[in-house]
Design goal:
Number of helices: 2
Strand content: 35-45%
Oligomer: single chain
Radius of gyration: 22 Å
Helix content: 10-25%
Order of helices and strands: HEEHEEEEEEE
Largest sheet: 9 strands, mixed
Length: 154
């Protein structure tokens, strides 16, 4: 005897669990291996390299500032990197009380950086460079508080 179950019901019974299984796998794999942003420095003394889970941080708290640091740049003052999801910086970012306030994404299409490089000159942080593939953006660092004593940028 043939069942009266329609082919559409059978297809839905197969497709819905498959989609749910794929979504679960996709979420689990993205959480297990988040995209990390490589952070380095140039001209700040001894090499400082580390990675940040910037996207994961933003996904967990989409409207909250996320701060990493302070990072000891050896030849320059220690700084914290504060990422503001609402910031769309033009050509400058602020260094305020030891924290550089940076955008989470950059460029007109708001891409996520693969690499961030902090640049120093004469013992002070002067710029931050964001890179993703061939898209590059340099931000000049502007102090909103006085530099530490002996810093030539004052």
């Amino acid at each position: 005897m043939l069942s009266s179950t329609s082919p559409k019901v059978i297809a839905a019974a197969i497709v819905v669990p498959a989609v749910a299984l794929f979504a679960t796998w996709s979420l689990a794999s993205s959480m297990a291996s988040p995209e990390l942003v490589a952070v380095s420095q140039q001209g700040c003394g001894a090499p400082v390299n580390f990675e940040l889970p910037l996207r994961t941080s933003q996904a967990a708290a989409p409207t909250v500032l996320v701060t990493y640091g302070p990072v000891d740049l050896t030849a320059a003052e220690p700084v914290s990197l504060t990422f503001d999801p609402t910031l769309t910086a033009a050509n400058e970012v602020a260094l305020n009380d030891g924290a550089i306030v940076l955008p989470m994404t950059f460029a007109t299409d708001r891409v996520w950086p693969q690499r961030i490089r902090v640049n120093c000159r004469d013992g002070a942080v002067t710029s931050v460079r964001y890179e993703r593939d061939r898209t590059v953006r340099n931000y000049n660092v502007v102090r909103t508080t006085p530099a530490p004593a002996g810093d030539p940028q004052t």
